[in-house]
């Protein structure tokens, strides 16, 4: 397994991973209506390419298969951060976050912050993030709970 930077050709696989993980992993903490709103069936590849390219996006890969990805903005914001539904809890998230952390330090970023799902909260806590507040966000008419979390590095 290696963690490398995102390439445009990864987009389709990343979008599929995002959809599958939300519908098969996050579904344990959210309703069907909520996951449908979070990851609708028709995701726009062009806007994903733009978003992934505009940040420092890291991809965990093994034998040409993408196992997870995470995005870092220059503000220190970690937006999307997902591992493959069939490769949960195998340390890939930790490896991706380590690369994000290293990049952030290199850039002089002092604080990493994210809005963690109910599902991802234990992961971020294990990596030293603290909950700032629980919040409710709206996605396509559905209200979802997440946690604003941060870590000073
Ligand atoms: C969050 C996520 C990316 C973490 O990736 P991962 O590869 O599964 O996590 P790791 O295997 O690196 O976990 C590292 C540590 O985090 C903690 N952890 C991870 N998942 C956990 C869980 N479900 N419950 C409790 N602790 C957990 C553990 O301490 C774990 O170490 P251990 O397995 O040695 O005990 C992954 O769970 C995921 O894809 N979740 C669904 C998508 C999501 O909600 N993403 C965030 C969007 S805001």
In a nutshell, what does this entry contain?
The chain is of the alpha+beta class and 153 residues long.
Structural summary, described in words:
The chain is α+β, with helices and mostly antiparallel strands. It has a single domain (2-152), classed as 3-Layer(aba) Sandwich (Aminopeptidase), CATH 3.40.630. It has five helices and seven strands. The protein has helices at 11-24, 32-38, 45-53, 92-107, 121-126, and strands at residues 2-5, 56-62, 65-72, 77-83, 111-117, 130-139, 142-152. The chain has a seven-stranded mixed β-sheet. The chain binds coenzyme A (COA). The site of coenzyme A (COA) has 20 residues, from β4, α4, β5 and α5.
Task: Give short descriptive properties of this protein.
alpha+beta, 35% strand, 153 residues, binds coenzyme A, seven-stranded mixed β-sheet, globular, 5 helices, single chain, Aminopeptidase, 34% helix
What is the topology?
Blueprint: E1 2-5, H1 11-24, H2 32-38, H3 45-53, E2 56-62, E3 65-72, E4 77-83, H4 92-107, E5 111-117, H5 121-126, E6 130-139, E7 142-152
Parallel strand pairs: 4-5
Antiparallel strand pairs: 1-2, 2-3, 3-4, 5-7, 6-7
The protein binds coenzyme A.
């Amino acid at each position: 397994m290696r963690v490398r930077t995102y390439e445009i050709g990864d987009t389709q696989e990343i979008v599929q991973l995002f959809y599958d993980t939300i519908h098969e992993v996050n579904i344990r903490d959210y309703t069907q209506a909520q996951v449908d709103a979070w990851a609708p069936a028709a995701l726009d590849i062009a806007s994903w390419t733009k978003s992934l390219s505009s940040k420092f996006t890291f991809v965990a890969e093994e034998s040409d298969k993408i196992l997870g990805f995470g995005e870092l903005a220059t503000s220190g914001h970690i937006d999307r951060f997902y591992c493959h539904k069939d490769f949960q809890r195998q340390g890939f998230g930790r490896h991706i976050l380590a690369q994000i952390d290293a990049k952030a330090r290199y850039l002089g970023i002092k604080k990493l912050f994210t809005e963690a799902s109910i599902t991802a909260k234990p992961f971020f806590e294990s990596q030293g993030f603290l909950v700032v507040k629980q919040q409710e966000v709206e996605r396509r008419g559905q209200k979802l709970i997440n946690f604003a979390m941060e870590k000073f590095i």
